[in-house]
Amino acid sequence: MKPRTHSNARRSMTMTALYVAWVWTVKGCELTAGRVFSDALIRRYLSERLAKHSDVYRFDTARQLAATAEALTANYIHRLPTPPHGGRVRPYSATEQATLYSWANTLTTALKRQNARALLSLAGGAGLTALELMAVQVEDVELVGARAVVNVAGERPRRVPVRANWVRTLTQSVGTRFDGHLFQAYRLEEYPPHELQRFLCDNPCSPRPSAARLHSGWVVSQIDAGLPLGVLLEITGFTSAQSLQPYLKYAKTHRLDPHIARITGEEAV
């Protein structure tokens, strides 16, 4: 496959290993490329083993396995249709958010409730991606009065004020801890969010909790707030305004007339 980066190498190894282990479990066939990377088996893997995963994850897995099959065999592998909106997903409605809040508060153990609250408050309240929220340490969270700020590390370091409706949930997740990961789980070096996905599969809810959908809703809420472009890019970690394009479909629409005075300069901004 000749991956060009360590990240791509780890990603390829993880997806391939999980798939091959599943093939061995359900088929017990000889582990040759031609037998393992067949269209029928990959389709079955996507429909059975990954049935509860997101469309984006299933699409990425299918693409990776198909590329591997074509590199190693002459087998043709059907691709899944591209997820809509470039992989972006529809934000949760207010009713759905209330359901997720109830889900987090009614899980059966304190650790499960703590992790669910970390997911909701970091992705829904601070717009973190699954990879980013898995890296957040307790000491990265600043609680000052009724406000909270998350210091995000990684490729897009930034400080993000948490939306007010999720501050209490974040505070409950932190609890009395002073260090350690906010979302407590074993982390695979190849793909840290794997245990997050496993947690969601083991603790189902309808609608299914999704860091991507929570993140999408957070971005839309910032657009709706009318923040200056520079501030939007700063808190989202996006490098260009083009990254905001997929979210505009879900943002509020505005009429032109009330803004004419500002457009013409007759009214100070």
SSE diagram, text form:
Elements: H1 6-26, H2 33-36, H3 39-49, H4 55-72, H5 94-105, H6 110-126, H7 130-135, E1 141-144, E2 147-152, E3 158-161, H8 164-174, H9 194-202, H10 211-224, H11 229-236, H12 260-264
Antiparallel strand pairs: 1-2, 2-3
Helix pairs in contact: 1-4, 3-4, 5-6, 6-8, 6-10
Q: Can you walk me through this structure?
A:
The protein has twelve helices and three strands; from the N terminus they run H-H-H-H-H-H-H-E-E-E-H-H-H-H-H. It has helices spanning 6-26, 33-36, 39-49, 55-72, 94-105, 110-126, 130-135, 164-174, 194-202, 211-224, 229-236, 260-264, and strands spanning 141-144, 147-152, 158-161. The protein is 51% helix and 5% strand.
Q: Average pLDDT, to the nearest integer? A: 90
Got a strand count? Answer: 3
What global shape is seen?
A: globular
Helix content: 40-55%
> Which stretches are low in confidence, meaning pLDDT under 50 for 5 or more residues running?
none
The count of helical stretches stands at 12
Neighbour order of strands in the largest sheet: 1-2-3
Order of secondary-structure elements: HHHHHHHEEEHHHHH
**Percent of sequence in beta strands:** 5-15%
Quick tags:
globular, single chain, 269 residues, 51% helix
Summarize the structure.
This protein is mostly helical and 269 residues long. The chain has helices at 6-26, 33-36, 39-49, 55-72, 94-105, 110-126, 130-135, 164-174, 194-202, 211-224, 229-236, 260-264, and strands at 141-144, 147-152, 158-161. The chain has 12 helices and 3 strands.
